[in-house]
Amino acid sequence: MAFAESWHVRSRSRECAATQRAFTDGETIVTALFPDPESSGYLRRDYSLEAWETLPVDADKPFSFWKTTYSAPSGNAADDTVEKLSPEEILHRLVEEDEDHTENTRYILAVMLERRKLLRETDSQRTPNGILRVYEHRKTGEVYLIRDPDIPLSEVEAVQNEVMVLLENNGRMPQPVIEDNSAGHATSDDSLPDEAPQTPAPE
After folding, report:
1. I need a labelling partner for 15 at 20 to 30 A (CA). Which of 40, 49, 71, 151 fits?
2. Do 74 and 85 meet the contact criterion of CB atoms below 8 Å apart?
3. Residue 191 domain-assigned?
């Protein structure tokens, strides 16, 4: 795992974590992230406004929390037969894989999706490993925790180009083309003399 603070956190719940009351479409709710005592990750809990405001004073303290609008699932997600991955799906996969070499790419992709109004940054927290930014998908409510790698200005263009390559290749970097030089080696013999030098016979 590349960093302890880089995760995709599950989608919003359909019911309040405190009262188990089902949310209604368009309802304002509170999403909260809590440190997971059993791992280095975070737990997500969604609350109705009433339940959030009446939590006990000794309740667990959240790492981050914000108000959001609950959108009922459309129920037709399975009908989507488009095979090409969306930018959100690519980010989802990269965060799940959490590989060192994609850290800059994940951050740039998240910023791009925020500018497209698909994600919104709900919070940022300073941690021992740098600034951790919390992004929420505006439609699905999925949450992504992504470390700000503080990319040097001189490297931003290269990372942006890498993101564009990923988008054009369904989220995968194309394999480098390895040329087969065997034919070239065969033709290189044409430059040799017609007759190979004779090996002296043993006396």
Report:
1. 40
2. no
3. no
Side-chain-facing half-sphere of 67: CA atoms under 13 Å: 8
Q: What is the pLDDT of residues 42-89, one digit of tens each?
A: 888 999 999 999 999 888 899 889 999 998 877 554 444 446 788 888
Q: Tokens representing 115? A: 């500018």
Would you say 96 and 106 are in contact if contact means Cβ atoms under 8 Å apart? no
In a domain, 184, yes or no: no
Please give the model's pTM, rounded to 2 decimal places.
0.62
- Residue-number span of the structural domain to which 94 is assigned: 7-73+82-168
Our count of domains for the chain comes to 1
Whether 39 shows a pLDDT value over 90: the answer reads no
Burial class (CB in 10 A: 0-12, 13-18, 19+), 10: exposed
